[in-house]
């Protein structure tokens, strides 16, 4: 999710920046295919990073035949099943990783996520039980490592969204945010921003996100959360500001391609650059649960082509978005809209 400040002002700098960005994406894919590994876990990591989740799972299963007590192998097998949307197997493998290494915060985090996704597909009775398990795993992940910020934010989100019957609650969320702020002030501001957005009070949320930017964190994550906030607010100027900070921390982050395409479309300028960024993102960045989805990237490409009155191209992108995410209301509505374009448009 990153763009540098000069890239938004000086044309020559913009061209240089976009060329670097596209080169990073292409060379990253080439490097992934040529990396030599020293063992099955490294091989699985490389396959996973390339989006080859089934191949990575096969590598891990073969390794587990030789080392069935290796918690890391079970953890990464759970991650593969998670990305393949096989949440039953994701839960089973994640449970085994926690059994073998109960002090690992990250293992508890991903078990909680697997329980959560399985709960979404379960009936109401099973779903409630799984939701409680998910909460307990997030709580344990935070207890084991308060600096596991992903677990902290997952727990806060759970408290904000879940009903009290499964352990949710606004008061719990507030307490957890204060606990997080004691560990890291920037993450605390981010947590308060999430809280106010949940309460539908964007003005208060913005005050917190402005504090995040003012702190100039040396981690990419906080900047990207601010980018998402301003994306929801349809504010490309503020998005660009946050992207500048993010690019200064890690200009190679793969999400940068997606967000820089989006901000150009929202701003209504440099649309060729936006198209190139989004196409490169789709070509070089594999689908993964912790990255902007390909469905969203196709949706934004469709919006770009619709803006340019290229209705057949727009319709094709909206169809691809729906193939990836059939529940996308925005893509479905947009497809109906562009299908009404006059002939030749």
Overview of the molecule:
The protein is mainly α. 75% of the residues lie in helices and 0% in strands. It is built from 18 helices and no strands. Helix 4 runs parallel beside helix 6. It is globular.
Summarize the helices and strands and which ones pair or pack:
Elements: H1 11-34, H2 40-49, H3 53-66, H4 71-83, H5 87-100, H6 105-121, H7 124-144, H8 149-161, H9 170-183, H10 185-198, H11 202-214, H12 220-232, H13 236-249, H14 255-267, H15 271-284, H16 294-307, H17 311-324, H18 329-338
Q: What's the overall geometry?
A: globular
Biggest sheet layout: none
Question: What string, H for helix and E for strand, traces the elements in order?
Answer: HHHHHHHHHHHHHHHHHH
Can you count the beta strands? 0
């Amino acid at each position: 999710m990153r763009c540098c400040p000069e890239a938004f002002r000086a044309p020559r700098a913009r061209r240089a920046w976009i060329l670097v960005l596209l080169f990073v994406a292409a060379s990253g894919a080439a490097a992934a295919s040529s990396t030599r590994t020293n063992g099955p876990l490294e091989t699985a990591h490389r396959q996973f990073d390339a989006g080859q989740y089934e191949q990575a799972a096969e590598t891990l299963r073969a390794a587990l035949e030789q080392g069935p007590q290796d918690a890391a192998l079970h953890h990464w097998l759970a991650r593969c099943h998670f990305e393949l949307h096989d949440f039953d197997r994701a839960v089973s493998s994640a449970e085994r990783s926690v059994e073998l290494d109960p002090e690992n915060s990250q293992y508890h985090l991903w078990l909680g996520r697997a329980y959560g996704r399985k709960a979404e597909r379960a009936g109401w009775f099973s779903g409630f039980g799984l939701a409680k398990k998910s909460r307990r795993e997030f709580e344990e992940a935070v207890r084991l490592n308060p600096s596991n910020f992903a677990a902290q934010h997952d727990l806060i989100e759970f408290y904000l969204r879940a009903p009290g019957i499964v352990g949710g609650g606004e008061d719990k969320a507030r307490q957890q945010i204060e606990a997080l702020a004691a560990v890291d002030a920037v993450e605390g501001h981010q947590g308060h921003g999430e809280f106010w957005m949940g309460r539908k009070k964007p003005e208060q949320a913005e005050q917190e996100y402005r504090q995040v930017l003012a702190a100039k964190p040396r981690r990419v994550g906080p900047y990207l959360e601010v980018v998402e906030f301003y994306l929801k607010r349809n504010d490309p100027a503020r998005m660009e500001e946050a992207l500048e900070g993010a690019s200064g921390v890690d200009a190679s982050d793969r999400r940068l391609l997606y967000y820089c395409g989006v901000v150009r479309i929202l701003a209504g300028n440099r649309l060729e650059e936006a198209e190139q960024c989004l196409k490169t993102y789709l070509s070089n960045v594999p689908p993964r649960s912790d990255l902007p989805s390909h469905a969203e990237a196709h949706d934004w490409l469709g919006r770009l082509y619709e803006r340019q009155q290229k209705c057949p191209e727009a319709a094709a992108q909206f169809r691809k978005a729906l193939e990836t995410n059939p529940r996308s209301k925005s893509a479905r509505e947009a497809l109906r809209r562009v299908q009404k374009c006059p002939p030749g448009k």
